[in-house]
Amino acid sequence: ELALAEVYLAGGKKEEGRSQLEFAISHAPQTGSDAMERVARARVMVCLLASEKNAGDVGAGDLAVARKAVEKLRPGTSKRDRLLAALGLIEARGLKEAGDVDGALEQYRIAFDAINRLCEAQPANQKLREWRVGGLTEAADLADGAGVVDAALQLRRQTATELIALLDGNPKDVGIKTELSEALGAISEAALEAGDTLRAKEHALRGKRLIDEVVEGKAATGEALVQLAGHKSVIAACDHSVGESDQALKMVDEGLEHVDQAEKMAQSSPMATFRKAMLKWQKSSLLGFAGKGADELKFGREARDHLAALIKQKCEYPSVRQVRRALAY
User: Fold this and answer.
1) DSSP string covering 116-144
2) Using CA atoms in the order 316, 130, 268, 264, what is the torsion angle rounded to 10 degrees?
3) How many angstroms separate the Cα of 156 from the Cα of each of 12, 162, 185, 221, 318?
4) Cα Rg of the chain (Å, integer)
5) What is the per-residue pLDDT across 70-94, written as a single tens digit (0 to 9) for each?
6) Comparing C-alpha atoms, which of 315, 287, 281, 318 is closest to residue 301?
7) Crossing angle, helix 126-146 and helix 78-97, to 10 degrees?
8) Measured between alpha carbons, how far is 144 from 183 in angstroms, rounded to an integer?
9) Which pLDDT value is given to residue 267?
10) Integer Cα distance of 103 and 205 in angstroms
11) pTM value?
């Protein structure tokens, strides 16, 4: 029964896999080290799948039972440590869902300490490292959305460092390129906000080169196109800061075209809408500097309307706080 559940999960059928895991647990033997290990893993998987769907779906009782099952396993084994690290991530997601940002970030830190030890013990295990990247990205998004800027930047840098190492071993991996491009985009935007336009443009150009390879390699997705638009937004701001207004406007217009492409692919998302709003705001500003007041107002109002619509959606990322901050500007 557990093997069947794992087949469902491997095929992307999470709901079927979760149901099968619960069925297997209810019929599992209560003795034997192998049975105990597989049941503990199943209990953690049930909680993990629920937390990916909605962290609020994970009951405190289910989590406590899962932790008790894991703690019965022989200490010092990588399997036990990995399950405990997974429980840490689940608890972090629960705290995030409850609005406890500080508690969630601390729990992520504890989970990462455990995952780091596993990665050090098994440096060739790519799945472990990819798992660490996923957790780092989750935590960075949380910190970014809550305005914990220093923590967000540190987490993005850790993510980028890990992804660069993964890319060295898998230079053609589209998924790794896309994730690294996203991390570099966030770092470049943070540098731009800090006024470091040289570093901002350096990271944005590097991210753009990566995502260009993805888009030109016929692996274009809405996410990739929106990322490309984000890199061009940063490059435009840097160009404008040194008086290259025409080049900046060209970058902004290209960015808007990329977002439109993403939406035509029926892959619109809160981030696509947010990116469109920020690009229109940039265009409004550039047109204002050029003395085109009517067009400045037109694009400024469109940007405002996009942001106002996003607030009503109450999306997780970009967070309501990030959208309100942009709308206030």
Assistant:
1) HHHHHH-TT-HHHHHHHHHHHHHHHHHHH
2) 170
3) 28, 10, 9, 22, 15
4) 22
5) 998 988 888 899 999 999 999 999 9
6) 281
7) 20
8) 12
9) 63
10) 35
11) 0.82
